[in-house]
């Protein structure tokens, strides 16, 4: 997936109930969501983590788990730099 612009409105300004990635631009946010969908659930698509009739809903449970994993990844990369250095961690570190 090609890189996208960091400019423009933040995801938290455009979409409802964005807890973790709200600081990304709308383009970056859509790219991350697309990439995660391709990696995690290409067959089920967005419905694996979202109620397709209400994307902001706090269901299904996979949405909550995914959010926690994204929070953990960001926390490790920002607060554990002495341990992870420049390499950092990604979803692939554990999966």
TrEMBL record:
**What GO MF annotations does this protein's record show?**
electron transfer activity; heme binding; iron ion binding
Asked if the Swiss-Prot or TrEMBL record annotates the protein with the keyword Transport, the reply is: yes
Q: Which domain of life is it from?
A: Bacteria
Q: Which GO terms describe its cellular component?
A: plasma membrane light-harvesting complex
Entry-linked Gene3D superfamilies: Photosynthetic Reaction Center, subunit C, domain 2
> Which keywords belong to this entry?
Electron transport, Heme, Iron, Metal-binding, Photosynthesis, Transport
GO biological process assignments: photosynthesis, light reaction
Q: Which InterPro entries does this UniProt record tie to the protein?
A: Multihaem_cyt_PRC_cyt_su-like, Multihaem_cyt_sf, Photosyn_RC_cyt_c-su
Which residues constitute the signal peptide according to the record? none
A Pfam family of this chain: CytoC_RC
Q: What does the protein in this record do?
A: The reaction center of purple bacteria contains a tightly bound cytochrome molecule which re-reduces the photo oxidized primary electron donor.
Query: Would you tell me the protein name for this molecule?
Result: Photosynthetic reaction center cytochrome c subunit
């Amino acid at each position: 997936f090609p890189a996208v612009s960091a400019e423009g409105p933040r995801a938290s300004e455009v979409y409802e109930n964005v807890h973790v990635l709200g600081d990304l631009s709308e383009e970056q946010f859509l790219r991350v969501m697309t990439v995660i969908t391709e990696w995690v659930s290409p067959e089920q698509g967005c419905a694996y983590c979202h109620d397709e009739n209400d994307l902001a809903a706090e269901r299904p449970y996979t949405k909550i788990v995914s959010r926690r994993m994204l929070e953990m990844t960001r926390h490790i990369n920002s607060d554990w730099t002495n341990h992870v250095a420049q390499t950092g961690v990604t979803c692939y570190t554990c999966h």
